[in-house]
Predict the 3D structure of the following.
Amino acid sequence: HHPEGDALEHTLHCLDALANNEEWRQRPSMERGILMLAVLTHDVGKATHTQVHEDGRVTSYGHDEGGVPIAQEFLEDLRAPKVYSHRIVPLVRHHMAHARAKHVAPSPESARRLAHALHPSNHKDLGLVMYADIHGRPGRTPSMAMADRVIE
C-alpha cells in the first residue's frame, strides 16, 4: 500500500524522480546503477510490514529494516556483485532515518553513527534515495510527502 496506489506504482515514480535528478545524472554509471537498485528495493519491506488499522489508517512501521533480507535475497537472485549489495542494503535499511528524527536536528553522534552504518555508501547516496522516495509521490509537494513519511 502507498498513497499513490500500491508500492510498485510509488517505486516507479521514485525511479523516475531519481532519473531526473541532476546530481544522480552526474554520477558514474556503476553508482547510478547502485542507486537505482537501492530505490527499486527501498520499500520491499512493505509486503511484510503493512497493517490496516480499524480506523482505516495504513502503516508500515519497520518496513525499512524488514526490507533488508528481502533486498538481500533479490540482489543474490540477480547475482549482483557484492560491492552492489554492500552499498544497497544499508540504503534500504536507513531510507527512513529522516522520519525518525521528527524535525529534530541530528546530533553529531547520531550523524557519525549513521555514517558508519551506511558505509560503504554515504550520506550523499542516502540523500538521493530519500530524494527519490519523497519526490516519488505525484501531486504531493515534498513537504506534504515528508509529513506522510513521519506518520508511516
User: Anything to note?
Assistant: The chain has ten helices and two strands. Strands lie at 51-52, 58-59. The first strand starts at residue 51 and ends at 52. Residues 56 and 128 are 31 Å apart (CA to CA).
